[in-house]
Every structure is written in structure tokens, then in C-alpha cells.
Write a structure and sequence with these properties.
The protein is α+β, with helices and mostly antiparallel strands. The strands form six sheets. A five-stranded mixed beta sheet has the order 1-3-2-4-5, sandwiched between helices. Strands 17-16-18-19 form a four-stranded mixed beta sheet, sandwiched between helices. It has a three-stranded antiparallel beta sheet with strand order 8-9-12. The longest helix has 18 residues.
Length: about 675
């Protein structure tokens, strides 16, 4: 066992028995490299990463490779999900140097943590134009030994280049106000140009679920009535839900599709994708009434609860892409794919033929070795929904007998915040109080375990114990987002209060003088540069997540400081939205909320009163972008929106305001719905 044996990260623990003398990311590792006068090998990956496992088996478990590493390097292993700040800084260097990036990330550093050579996966033998990992190690060791001055010069130049990339709003062109109608229209036009009219989604292969962009499209349609925006959102969601990227038996989405058509996924399932997509499909149902959207939202919520929920009430990070195929081989997708023969073994000849046609399972296969990824093409199963449901149940039961993929059971604060929001809203929309309860339990865990006495968050926890790494901006933004969604659904003002605590930290420790935002707090561990990125990746950027929740909190409380901070942060959306709309979808969605108000809805009435519940439900189902909702008894002090607002002629009432102007209160559900759709 090496030094990783005492870590809490499942990814690091996977390497604890390697013959490589791994160190975690800590000052002592760099002190050791300085003492021995050797470079540092930094290897960054995550538990569900397929090629991380491949490189581990090929190289890090190999005794000869490990012996060479141990003699010539100090080797440091990082879980990118625990340390997104370390990952972001060195990924920026890798992309700048090579034009591409990915995981596993392989970076060679000086003992001062300055990078000088980069790569991702390296094979054990030269192939496809790539050198072997051993060749890379020998080349780096020789350069360190024989050309030290050149190595130092390269490292110094890279650090100076990275240090000069701090993103001010002025440099981004975002000074001069918030995004307005013109910028949002340009962003929509840019998305239209990149839209795949045949298969949905944006761009070509590989194709990732565009969750944040779809949220923008739904909000833009709600505010402007632009039918093209709604059509792109609906068609993309339907294509994904019918494709192989969606688990047609157990619900939930894989990380991405390797092809343009959404047929073959990269099979890892991430909490953040499923939380974001669950919410998106719920919002699509809210906008259209689509039965497909309703089914997918609920199945995805049930998948998260069934397969990712931890004993402590939080949600695990991911399920691996790989699993044992039943012969001892660890194979990507083995848990999910089917052959015609396997269908016959479970269903018998007649139902197997029906299922093969239904799910596009062929003798040739759509994946590897004659296996197929289950799809549900347009029209499949419509004629006999009962038979389809029966077949799905039988196949799912048979699949449960297979070797399951591994689970990374660390709880990441940001991703759990996204799950809280998704489960709370989905539970409220579809009368599933159990989902709201699961959201509340996850929020409780975040407060009990991740939040300390000063309202500072821990990035991760495992087995109910907080990790040692500080939260980053996305954690504060996404957890606060979850708390506000839970407050709106449950009427419990304590969640608004907790969101306020987190946002105080954002304003105090993450904000620059010009209103731009950093990914790490000003007192976080210093790296070669302070990471800062306003663009979305697989999740909303910390910058735009914080902007969205600052805006919502300002609407809830009337706080000009929070609204002003949101508006200043959104200056970057004004600059980037028209140029790169696919990569700042959450910022565009927040801009839609800003332009719409956002609307503030206060529902006043007894919690057990049926009329109160009907008004509350109408408020939650409103498509007005970013509307904030408070519900409570007359005279309640839990929400600022409820103050000085009472019943109307003894009946529960709803109050709607925006842009500092309030409509007359109403006791009529249909009138309230109308007020929130104008």
C-alpha cells in the first residue's frame, strides 16, 4: 500500500495498491521532489474515467514502469472531482500547449509546481503516432538531467503566460451593462446555426447533453414566444431520450454519445448530468405537457435515488463505464448492452423478436462484438405500451443479475446541490413527496457535514465525514441554487437563510473589484494561477451559477447588493453570449431571468388549505424565467416576500411583482397562471 491508502477519494483508493509510490497533492510531495532534485509526475483523473483505468492497468500496475517512476520522479495522483482547482489550472496549460485536453491528464512539473511537459493518455508501447509512456518518462528524465536550464525556461514561460490570463470584465468586453435583447437574439441565432436539424443537439460527434443551453431555450421561449427555441429544445430532448445515451431500462443518462446520432454512449453515468437533465425534462413538461418529458424526468429522478443515493442521504458522484462482462474481463458497457441471443434467453423467441425490433437490437450490433445499445426509436412501443412495460421490467430484472459497474460514492457539494433542485422540483410537479423528501435529506447532509460554523463549505464528503478540500465557487452557487429550489417547494424559510450564508461567502471571498468572479476563494491554497472560467463545461460554471442564485436571492429579499452583484457578473454573458452561446448557456438562462424581472410570487395561506396548495402549485408550474416563489401563513416572517401580505377576504391569495411593480393580489388560480405567463 502507498500513501493513497489513507485517502477518502475512491479514485485515489483505486491506486493505493499500485507499485507506484504515489503521493496525494500536498506540500510534502513537492518538498520531497526538491530534496531529491527530481521532477514531479502529476496524474489527474476520476473514478468513472475509462481511459484512466486503462492507463492504470497498462502502466501504473506494471512493476518495471513503477520502478522507473519511483527512481526518477515524485508521482502525485489527483482526483479532479475533489480538486477542480488543480485540474483547471493544469488543464488550461495542457490545452494551451497541445490544443486538446482530457483525462487521464499527465503533466510533468518542477518541484515548484511549474509545468513543462504535457499529455493525456500514453500507451505502454508506441502506437497511432503516440510515444509509449516509458519513452515519455525517459525523455523527461533525460531533459531534467541534461537540459535543466531549458526546462526551467519553458516552465517559467508557461507560468507567466497563465498568470497573465486573469479575466477582467473589461478584457472580456463585458463592461457596459448586462446582456439585453440584442445579445440574447444573437445567441439564439448562433445556436440555430450550430443546431443539428436531423438528430438534435449541437455540433457533431462526440455529442454531449446540452442541458444549460436547453434551459436557456425554454426560458427564451417562455419570455418571447420564439417557437424555434422551443422546437430545438423539445427535439433535442426527444432525440436524447430515444437514443442509446438514455438507459431505456433503468432510466438515467450516460455521459455523452460518441456519435452524432446519440446511439453509442460513453457509458459512465454522472450525478451532475442526471440532475441537470432531470430538471430540464421536468421544465420541458412544464412548458409543453409532453408525456415523454414527464416519463424521463421521473425515471431519471428514480435512477438517482435508486442507484446513487448514499446511506447518509447524499448522492454519489458516478457509476463507472466498465464492469465485468461475466468472463472476468472488465469491459466498457458490459452492464448495459444486449445481443439477440441474450434477449431470447430472458424473453423467449416471440417477445425477443418484438424487443429486438423495439430497441433496435441487431445481429450485427450497434456497439462492439455484436452487442447493441438499447434505443427506442420514434413510434416504438406506442401500439402496445403494456407489452413494452412488461418487457422492460423483465430485462431490467435480468440485468440486475449482471456484475454492476463500480460506484464512486464520494458526495460532491455542487452536484448534490443540483440534485436537490432537480428532485425538489420534480417531486412538486408530479406529486411525488418522496422525491421532495430525498431532496430535503440531501440538503440536510450538506448542512450537517459540509457546512462549518462560519458557513464555509467542504467540497466533498464520504461516509458522512467531510473531506479536507475547500469548496470552490460552483459548490457555493449550486448548493445555494438547491436550497432556494427547496425553499420554494417546501415553504421552509430556513433554506433561504442557508442560501444567504453561502452567498455572503461568495461576495466576500470570490469576487474581484470589477465584479468578475474567481473559482477559488481569496484565501484558498495558492496555485501557479488563481483559476477563473465563466464558461460552462459539463455543469454550469461557478461564475454563472453564482450570478443566477445571486439574482434569485436578490428577488427573494429585495437585496440591491445581491442583484447588483449578479448584474455585474452577467457582463461576461453580454460579451460571450453572442460569440459562444453553447458554452455559456447557464449565463444566458440567467440573463433571461433578469430581463423578465425575475418575477416574485408570494402565496399567503394556511399550509393545509387546499386553495393555498392550488395557488402554490400554479406558482411553481409557471414558466416565467427564474421566477422566485415563497409560500407561508399570514404574518409569516420566514420569507421577506410574505411580509405585510395577508389573506384577501379571508381566502388564500397570491401576490406577483416584477421590476418594482406589483399586480393586485388574486385568489384565483387561473388568473395567477395568466399573470405568470404574460
Amino acid at each position: 500500500m502507498n500513501r493513497l491508502a489513507g485517502m477518502t477519494s475512491p479514485y485515489l483508493l483505486q491506486h493505493a495498491e499500485n507499485p507506484v509510490d504515489w503521493w496525494p497533492w500536498e506540500p510534502e510531495a513537492f518538498e520531497e521532489a526538491r530534496r531529491r532534485d527530481v521532477p514531479v509526475l502529476l496524474s489527474i483523473g476520476y473514478s468513472a474515467c475509462h481511459w484512466c483505468h486503462v492507463m492504470a492497468h497498462e502502466s501504473f500496475e506494471d512493476d518495471d514502469t513503477a520502478a522507473y517512476l519511483n527512481e526518477h520522479f515524485v508521482s502525485v495522483k489527483v482526483d479532479r472531482e475533489e480538486r477542480p482547482d488543480v485540474d483547471a489550472v493544469y488543464m488550461e496549460a495542457v490545452q494551451a500547449a497541445t490544443g486538446q485536453g482530457g483525462w487521464p491528464m499527465t503533466v510533468f512539473l518542477t518541484p515548484d509546481a511549474e509545468p513543462f511537459y504535457f499529455g493525456t493518455y500514453f500507451p505502454p508501447a508506441p502506437r497511432h503516432g503516440m510515444p509509449s509512456f516509458r519513452q515519455v518518462l525517459e525523455g523527461v528524465a533525460a531533459a531534467w538531467r541534461d537540459r535543466r536550464e531549458e526546462v526551467g525556461e519553458v516552465a517559467g514561460n508557461i507560468v507567466r503566460e497563465l498568470s497573465g490570463r486573469s479575466l477582467t470584465l473589461e478584457a472580456a468586453g463585458g463592461v457596459g451593462g448586462v446582456p439585453r435583447e440584442a445579445e440574447l437574439a444573437q445567441a439564439l441565432l448562433g445556436l440555430t446555426r450550430e443546431y443539428d436539424e436531423r438528430y438534435g443537439g449541437f455540433g457533431g460527434a462526440p455529442k454531449f447533453p446540452p442541458s444549460m443551453v436547453v434551459e436557456f431555450l425554454l426560458r427564451h421561449h417562455a419570455r418571447t414566444g420564439a417557437e424555434g427555441a422551443l422546437q430545438m429544445a423539445a427535439d433535442t430532448c426527444e432525440a436524447m431520450a430515444r437514443g442509446g445515451i438514455y438507459d431505456q431500462l433503468g432510466g438515467g443518462f450516460a455521459r455523452y454519445s460518441v456519435d452524432r446520432e446519440w446511439v453509442v454512449p460513453h457509458f459512465e453515468k454522472m450525478l451532475y448530468d442526471n440532475a441537470l437533465l432531470c430538471r430540464v425534462y421536468a421544465h420541458l413538461w412544464r412548458a409543453t405537457g409532453s408525456e415523454l418529458a414527464r416519463r424521463v424526468a421521473l425515471e431519471t429522478a428514480d435512477f438517482m435515488v435508486r442507484e446513487l443515493r448514499t446511506p447518509e442521504g447524499g448522492f454519489a458522484s458516478a457509476l463507472d463505464a466498465d464492469s465485468d462482462d461475466g468472463t472476468g474481463r472488465h469491459v466498457e458497457g458490459a452492464f448495459y448492452v444486449w445481443t439477440p441471443r441474450q434477449l431470447r434467453e430472458v424473453l423467449g423467441e416471440e417477445d425477443a423478436r418484438y424487443a429486438a425490433a423495439l430497441f433496435a437490437v441487431t445481429e450485427e450490433g450497434t456497439f462492439e462484438e455484436g452487442a447493441s445499445v438499447l434505443q427506442l426509436p420514434q413510434g416504438a412501443g406506442v401500439a402496445d405500451a403494456e407489452r413494452l412495460d412488461g418487457i422492460r421490467r423483465r430485462l431490467l430484472a435480468a440485468r440486475e443479475e449482471r456484475h454492476r459497474p463500480g460506484r464512486d460514492d464520494k458526495v460532491v457539494a455542487a452536484w448534490n446541490g443540483l440534485a436537490v433542485a432537480a428532485l425538489a422540483e420534480t417531486g412538486a410537479y408530479f406529486d411525488r413527496p418522496d422525491l421532495v423528501e430525498r431532496a430535503t435529506e440531501a440538503a440536510d447532509l450538506l448542512v450537517r457535514v459540509h457546512l462549518d460554523e462560519s458557513a464555509r463549505l467542504a467540497r466533498t464528503s464520504r461516509d458522512g465525514q467531510a473531506g479536507s478540500h475547500a469548496a470552490v465557487l460552483e459548490d457555493y452557487g449550486d448548493v445555494a441554487e438547491g436550497f432556494l429550489a427547496l425553499a420554494a417547494v417546501t415553504g421552509e424559510g430556513v433554506w433561504l437563510e442557508f442560501a444567504g450564508f453561502l452567498l455572503d461567502i461568495v461576495l466576500d471571498r470570490f469576487r474581484a473589484e470589477d465584479g468578475s468572479l474567481y473559482d477559488t476563494a481569496h484565501d484558498a491554497e495558492p496555485l501557479i494561477r488563481r483559476p477563473q472560467d465563466p464558461t460552462d463545461n459539463a455543469t454550469p460554471s461557478g461564475w454563472t451559477a453564482a450570478a443566477g442564485v445571486l439574482l434569485a436571492y436578490g428577488a427573494h429579499t429585495g437585496s440591491e447588493a445581491h442583484r447588483s452583484a449578479a448584474e455585474r457578473a452577467l457582463g461576461v454573458v453580454k460579451a460571450l453570449g453572442p460569440r459562444a452561446p453553447r458554452f455559456i448557456g447557464w449565463g444566458l438562462a440567467t440573463a433571461e431571468a433578469l430581463l423578465d424581472g425575475p418575477r416574485e410570487v408570494a402565496v399567503v395561506g394556511g399550509r393545509e388549505d387546499a386553495a393555498t396548495r392550488e395557488l402554490h402549485r400554479a406558482a411553481l408550474l409557471a414558466t416565467a424565467p427564474g421566477a422566485v416563489v415563497a409560500v407561508g401563513e399570514p404574518g409569516s416572517e420566514e420569507f421577506p416576500l410574505l411580509r405585510d401580505r395577508g389573506l384577501i377576504e379571508g381566502r388564500p391569495a397570491a401576490y406577483v411583482c416584477r421590476h418594482f411593480v406589483c399586480d393586485a393580489p388574486t385568489t384565483d388560480v387561473s388568473r395567477l397562471s395568466g399573470k405568470l405567463s404574460d
